Amino acid sequence: MELPIRYRGRQATSQEVAFIRRLIAQNPDDSRRALSVKLCKALNWVQPNGTLRDMVCRGYMLALDRAGYIGLPAKKCSPPNPLVDRKKPAQIGIDQSPISSGLKNIRPLKLRQVRRSRLEKLYNSLIEAHHYLGYCQPVGEHLKYIVFADQRPIACLAWSSAARHIGCRDRFIGWSADSRRKHIHLIAYNTRFLILPWVRVPYLASHLLAQMAKAVAVDWQRVYNHRLYYLETFVDKDRFAGSCYKAANWIYLGDTTGRGKNDQSKKANRSIKAVFGYPLTTDFRRHLCGGRQ
């Protein structure tokens, strides 16, 4: 029987709660983390790359505990959270002399995936210093790129896990709520796109988007062991027209409602964003809808 608890797409049932109670009773000395690892293994609750969904599982168990369905052991320790009071990226100086040229004069360009590499700090620094949103540490699956012309960085892009629910996107794809929960990981979201302010190269932005569509699909498969079938982004309509996305054949799908994912007021509380999508395959709907189209 289903219970009134749903966490990150997982619906609690009386049978599962009974199993968790037995797991806790059979392992009285285990910490909450040890219990969540055992539960992940028992339920085969893993990411597409095979990594246990340990943190999500802990949040699920905590939700059940707070609702009174299970009794978790007391916390044994409170390790420091690296996301709390995170320092801003240190500024790294680079050559800022102007680059003003035609696109053909700075090619070939090199797109380097820099997450977990020595260049990641440079990416963080450039985004913090020159992107209007600054740097924010991504969570979940994500990749970071620096684009080089010769040896000089000229642009930065980042891709992250997709937003769980966007009305105009979900209608465009045509998937059910269940298909969305099961296949949302097959979409990547372009969270940052920065051409450094001293770079003035016509058509550079749309050219990079076209190149990135190929590169991110390959790198995502390599890093996370699953394919991508669709890309998306949001463009702040108060600041930008989205011209480079249109020029790169991204599809304008509509606008956001201006409400956050946890909004309860039903009223806009942030800027309206234009939603753009880019299918990576002609049969993307079949994959995202679970083979039904």
Protein model, in words:
- With 293 residues, this protein is an alpha+beta fold.
- It has helices at residues 14-26, 32-43, 54-66, 120-130, 167-173, 177-183, 204-224, 243-247, 284-288; strands at residues 2-7, 10-13, 99-100, 109-113, 142-149, 152-161, 187-195, 199-200, 230-236, 251-255, 273-279.
- Helix 2 crosses helix 3 (54-66).
- The longest helix is centred in the last third of the chain and has 21 residues, at 204-224.
- The radius of gyration is 22 Å and the shape is globular.
- The mean pLDDT is 91.
Layout of strands and helices, then pairs:
Elements (H helix, E strand, L loop, with lengths): L1 E6 L2 E4 H13 L5 H12 L10 H13 L32 E2 L8 E5 L6 H11 L11 E8 L2 E10 L5 H7 L3 H7 L3 E9 L3 E2 L3 H21 L5 E7 L6 H5 L3 E5 L17 E7 L4 H5 L5
Parallel strand pairs: 3-8, 7-9
Antiparallel strand pairs: 1-2, 4-5, 5-6, 6-7, 9-11, 10-11
Helix pairs in contact: 2-3
- In the CATH hierarchy, the architecture of the largest domain is 3-Layer(aba) Sandwich
Helix and strand succession? EEHHHEEHEEHHEEHEHEEH
What is the residue-averaged pLDDT? 91
Ranges where pLDDT stays below 50 over 5 or more residues in a row are none
**Cα-based radius of gyration, to the nearest Å:** 22 Å
Work out the count of structural domains. 2
Order of the strands making up the biggest sheet? 4-5-6-7-9-11-10
In a nutshell, what does this entry contain?
This protein is α+β, with helices and mostly antiparallel strands and 293 residues long. 32% of the residues lie in helices and 22% in strands. 24% of the residues are buried.
